[in-house]
Amino acid sequence: MRPIFDNTVMLDTSGGSETQPAPAQGTSLPKLGRYQVVGEIGKGAMGVVYRARDPMINREVALKVIPLAEEFDGYELEEARTKFFREAEMAGRLSHPHIVTIYDAGEDGGTAYIAMELLRGTHLVDYTSASRTLPAAIAIELVARLADALHYAHQNQVVHRDIKPANVMFDPPSGELKITDFGIARLTDSNRTKTGVVLGTPSFMSPEQLQGRVVTGSSDLFSLGITLYQLLTAQLPFRADSMPGLMLRIAQEPHTPARLVNPALPEGVDAFFDRALAKPPAERYPNGAAFALALRSLNSPSRN
């Protein structure tokens, strides 16, 4: 994969992957399934990610741990378990340079886990503040690559359902860019766990997802459009003080033109967002490939 970065865009490659100190020699490591847990990497709405080692092949992995027995019970627990392994299996079939590789999935004492490649870099959310935005051309190309990855996933009947900067890892020195957490957001049809955690991030959801309608690849692309908008402007296109207010804005109200927020953005970017963030799915880009093509046209020399 060709790098698109120079020394002006660098970051600490730890990626929040600093682990707790390793146990002293001779001390046994805690285990989950066959994996030896080394330390915690981070936490999300549905669980914790650990740095772990697969002793069978001496490989370090990221272990996403989800306490199904704590979040669900009775019939819902069995349904969640079935969905978890079905989604993990589907995500595990994906092989794309911009999608995290899943090695294994299992359950140990009511705790489900997914073993995946250990990534470098940090989440794209680190580049959504006004003091640390990426150059527009780089942000546009990164999101075009993510659109390519989503096009591939959608062709394989896998919808992510929770695209946002926090679910994308980015390492500028190597150019590595990966979407994470495929399949996690589909554990319940109601998008809510027993403990009340909403699966998915409302600010990045499409109108149809917030309204509980059928979610397709078009919803992922709507969320990707919001992700790009935030990367380019350091703010969200739809904001409100309450959940009902946010849902109303996403479902009915137009976004603020991006060039009104950041006049330095390339011409054509607002036309792109008008289509990418259209309320009816039928009015958006038909697939990730078309989404990516439209983005790359913004970076073409003929426009500059």
Extract low-pLDDT stretches: 1-26, 188-199
- Count up the helices: 9
Beta-strand share of residues: 15-25%
In total, the number of domains comes to 2
Q: Write down the CATH topology of the largest domain.
A: Transferase(Phosphotransferase), domain 1
Termini gap = 25 Å
Helix content: 25-40%
Secondary structural class: alpha+beta
Mean pLDDT: 84
- Name given to the CATH homologous superfamily of the largest domain: Transferase(Phosphotransferase) domain 1
How do the strands of the widest beta sheet line up side by side?
A: 1-2-3-4-6-5
Major sheet summary line:
6 strands, antiparallel
Measured on Cα atoms, how large is the radius of gyration?
A: 20 Å
Proper CATH architecture of the largest domain? Orthogonal Bundle
How would you describe this structure to a colleague?
There is one protein chain. By secondary structure, the chain is of the alpha+beta class. The chain has 2 domains: 31-117, Phosphorylase Kinase, domain 1 (2-Layer Sandwich); 122-303, Transferase(Phosphotransferase) domain 1 (Transferase(Phosphotransferase), domain 1, Orthogonal Bundle). Helix content is 32%, strand content 17%. Strands 1-2-3-4-6-5 form a 6-stranded antiparallel β-sheet, with helices on one face. Strands 7-8-9 form a 3-stranded antiparallel β-sheet, with helices on one face. The two termini are 25 Å apart. The relative contact order is 0.13.
